[in-house]
Amino acid sequence: MLSTTRRQLRAAPTAGRQLSTSATTRSSAAPALTLGTRPFRVGIIGGGPAGFYAASRLLGLAGSENTKVDLFELLPTPFGLARFGVAPDHPEVKNCEHKFEETARDPRFRFFGNVQVGGVAPSPSSPSSSTSTVVPNLSPSPLAAQITLSSLQPHYDAILLTYGASLDRLLGIPGEDTLSNVFSARSFVNWYNGHPYHSSLLAPLINLSKLEHVTVVGQGNVALDVARILLKDPAALEEFDVPEGVLDELRRSKVKRVEIVGRRGPLQLACTTKEVRELMNLPGVGFETDAALLKEAMVQMEENPGMDMARMRKRALGLLEKGSKTKMSSAERSWSFEFLKSPLELLAADATGASSSSNDALDLLAPPSRVGAVHYGINELVGSGDPSRLSARSTGQTTTSSTDMVLKSVGYRSIGLPGLPFDERRGIVRNQEGRVIDEAGQTLPGLYTSGWLARGPNGVIATTMFDAFATADLLAADLSSSSPSEARPELPIEQLRGDRQVVSWEDWEKLDREERRRGEEKGKLREKMTEVKEMLEILA
Amino acid sequence: MFSRSVARLIIARPSPASAVRALATSASSPSAGAPSRFLAPAAKHNQLIQRAFSNSAALAHGGKGRPKKGEGITLHFKKSNGEIETVEANEGDDIVDVSWEWDLDIEAACEKSIACSTCHVILEDDIYDKLEEPSDDENDMLDLAFGLTDTSRLGCQVKVTKEMDGTTITLPSATRNLRVDGSKPTPH
Ligand SMILES: Cc1cc2nc3c(=O)[nH]c(=O)nc-3n(C[C@H](O)[C@H](O)[C@H](O)COP(=O)(O)OP(=O)(O)OC[C@H]3O[C@@H](n4cnc5c(N)ncnc54)[C@H](O)[C@@H]3O)c2cc1C
Ligand code: FES
């Protein structure tokens, strides 16, 4: 029998007990959805998990024998954040790539890498990128072929937009844009994962041998990934696919302390138990947090068993209470969760206490000063009902903590394409269950969106997968119930690409083999190529 | 030294040989003068396409084989569309193996590494209670499973036992239910 504690842990609905059935008939497994063997052409824009899962779903549907899927990807390399987001020491998470590879080898599928769809211009109200942030998609790439959405449309019965969320949300506080050693956590992740747009730009700016104390703003999984990579013994990363240059930088690192700061409390944490557990188990790394706050949160937890994601929150709090395997007293390095703090200003190292954002003309000539401290406002939680949904309100009190580097991890937003309805507030393409809609709520026929671009930048690959499957089903249902039209003409890619090189799936496989070969020489999974130029030269 | 996780990764990789085999059985006639290297071979790929309709992971993994008819452990799978499929499984295989063998459409995105939760299954109470408690790692992933229940487990962590004979395993539906009658193609 289950113990009571175990029952309590499972504070989730008990649907399964009603769901179970003892029926024994074997019914036909044929899905209701079929593409009726009509010669549909579907274009997919963005080769991350959403794009690939949608392609695999479409090509797996009954009646898809004559369906063709073309996938366009900005980079010569496929897989989006599975390659450039997921942490290098989590290779198992990247196993989804095997399914994507199978889909790509299907003769009905074509990959067009190094193709930027858009002619992308940032919409006027979208936030600008800060000096130390590079946005892959904000301006036309000098190397990728440029194709506009409207030039694709005549060639496809449906176009599915899955180009993700490339912009970082900003803190919008003084010092954020002007001080050095302030990065978006995602740029930092892209750097250690060898993203071509970030590797060369960030490499000269990051000097871990000069800093001990890192502040991460935001408490989601990305913040925890970053902390783990900074605190882990670099030797334990060597076997994976961290670029050699990054490994060298990590070996030089003097980082002793990582503070992960959030504006709310322990019960409102956005990270998952798996990531917390990994940090707690890191050899030689201690953890500390505000014990009184934690205790308060535990009490609230007990009083509100029905709260959102109760099971995960309870298990996460349990981990925080138990603490790190290595105690603080014997730890060489450490991390902490700091709660109820909102950064108000980033302060320069050399002007203690003074704002660096003064308009002194000399500032323009001098190199940017380094961040030296964060000035925080202290919050309290307000609201009623589900305690996991309480919001933060300033108490009017402030505090300042010193730091050597600030990594911002407060969310992302997408970028619109000309002619595409865009929800500026949420930073996503306007859509209803994946069908693109205009401001008036009217469906734009033949246009769909899925993944982070459609739902916002939340959720693990599994979330993205379910969303992509559902959108693919919807797209297929719409197509198969549409009245028959003339077959679409094949895309004249040779004409559209101009003098730019387009990367085929076979080309990518060649790059993949080369990366693995280089990796093998060093006893690691792969040595990523971090420059598009090099990739294209190998393929030329 | 390669750690366990890397070793697991390498083992879990579908062998290129199996993919090549799949292509070889299908590619019969060469493409009719493909003008560009971006054109997929236009050959008839009926066999491959037929196989591609089923769970593509099964294409690479192929499962672990089926027991002789009448000698295996009978399992009923209640699929997300409500259909029941009854299969025979080997004792000791895990639920993902069974799915790969019988194309049951369990995704298993991380290929049994306890890193994805897409192999989430719901067991009957008595079967659930007879199993060992899930590990911390499994519970961490179950935290993220859609439609979690009191008797949820990760399919890749549950081995088939004799006691399971005749039990029903429910595959939770996580997608929005779009496969309703309205999605059937209109005749034309
Ligand atoms: C740092 C980080 C770590 C993560 N770690 C995990 C994890 O451990 N486990 C997990 O399950 N999930 C993890 N996730 C979440 C997971 O990565 C997402 O759920 C998933 O990648 C979203 O898929 P997507 O296809 O919508 O977007 P993306 O993966 O971002 O794919 C978008 C693709 O579109 C391309 N693109 C962009 N603009 C254009 C254009 N104009 N034309 C053509 N192509 C374009 C991009 O290059 C990219 O390849 C992580 C996310 C981040 C940010
Ligand atoms: S297959 Fe990924 S957790 Fe079981």
TrEMBL record, chain A:
Residues 19-28 have a biased composition (Low complexity). The keyword Mitochondrion applies. GO terms for cellular component: mitochondrion. GO terms for molecular function: oxidoreductase activity. NADP(+) binds at residues 219-222, 263-264, 275, 459. It is found in: Mitochondrion. Its EC number is 1.18.1.6. InterPro entries: FAD/NAD-bd_sf, Ferredox_Rdtase, Ferredox_Rdtase_adrenod. The keyword ATP-binding does not apply. Keywords: FAD, Flavoprotein, Mitochondrion, NADP, Oxidoreductase. FAD binds at residues 50, 73, 81, 117, 452, 459-461. It catalyses: 2 reduced [adrenodoxin] + NADP(+) + H(+) = 2 oxidized [adrenodoxin] + NADPH. It comes from the Eukaryota. Its cofactor is FAD. Gene3D superfamilies: FAD/NAD(P)-binding domain, NAD(P)-binding Rossmann-like Domain. Belongs to the ferredoxin--NADP reductase type 1 family. PANTHER family: GLUTAMATE SYNTHASE 1 [NADH], CHLOROPLASTIC-LIKE. This is NADPH:adrenodoxin oxidoreductase, mitochondrial.
From TrEMBL, chain B:
It holds the Pfam family Fer2. CDD domains: fer2. InterPro entries: 2Fe-2S_ferredoxin-like_sf, 2Fe-2S_ferredoxin-type, Adrenodoxin-like, Adrenodoxin_Fe-S_BS, Beta-grasp_dom_sf. It comes from the Eukaryota. GO terms for molecular function: 2 iron, 2 sulfur cluster binding; electron transfer activity; metal ion binding. Keywords: 2Fe-2S, Iron, Iron-sulfur, Metal-binding. One of its GO terms (cellular component) is mitochondrion. Residues 71-175 form the 2Fe-2S ferredoxin-type domain. GO terms for biological process: P450-containing electron transport chain. Its cofactor is [2Fe-2S] cluster. Belongs to the adrenodoxin/putidaredoxin family. This is 2Fe-2S ferredoxin-type domain-containing protein.
